[in-house]
Amino acid sequence: MLVLFNGLPPIASPPHRHIPSRVGCEVQVLGRIQWGYGGVLFGVAFVSSWVGQHFIVGYIRKTGKNSYIAFILSFIIILATILLCVLGVIQTIEDVNSGKQLGFTPLCR
Q1: pTM to 2 decimals?
Q2: 24 CB burial (10 A radius; 0-12, 13-18, 19+)
């Protein structure tokens, strides 16, 4: 919708720039991962979000076209969804072949 009104995509807006690094910190503070891994996750997320923000804003300022960014993000989301489904099916087939229950139990024992 924002692309139709010449608005920047949500990924290019300042409040969303550091969400990956904040998520890394929150996961670390909750004790779900080790400190070393959490620090690396925070660093990679912070640097990659800053670099991505810099290049996306620079590209939009140079060309004035937001639609390419929206198409690229849509493609990435669709590809990730397809890959997630394929990996889920592969894991389910492996579980069936190894004799796992798949979480279903009979109603009457």
Answers
A1: 0.47
A2: buried
